[in-house]
Each structure stands twice: as structure tokens, then as C-alpha cells.
Amino acid sequence: MEELLRTNDITLIPLARTLLDGAGIDSFELDVNMSVLEGSIGILPRRLMVRSDDLPRARRILRENGVRFEG
């Protein structure tokens, strides 16, 4: 698995996952429990992971849909 994006924006990961699901790309969210433990105040970022083979395509899909992320 490779990191596709890391964000404190609670709306960005659901959007990205919806776009990826629509394209048939599996994704997995990391650090959800850590975010909950810190009180969901947005200090700790969450990460969205995809398979290494899907990473270039996933990045392209997010960019084409106006999702801003580093990488």
C-alpha cells in the first residue's frame, strides 16, 4: 500500500474514497482511531492508502476532479 494523501480536512477523504470507489480502486484509511483519540479536533492527519499499482491512476483521478493534495 502507498500513501495517496494525508489531510486534516475531514471532508477530503470521503470525497476521495467516493471517486476512487467509482473508478474501481480500493482504498484504506489509516489513523482514524488516532484522530478520534485526540478528540477529533484536527491535529492529527488521516492518511488514505491505495495499492502501489493503483497509485498513478488514483492521483490522476483526484487531480481530474479538482481534489488538491500533495504528491
UniProtKB/TrEMBL annotation:
Ranges that cross the membrane: none
Pfam families: DUF2007 (PF09413)
The DUF2007 domain, residue ranges: 1-65
InterPro entries: DUF2007, N-reg_PII-like_a/b
SUPFAM superfamilies: GlnB-like
Top-rank taxon, per record: Bacteria
Protein name listed in UniProt: DUF2007 domain-containing protein
Originating species: Tropicibacter naphthalenivorans
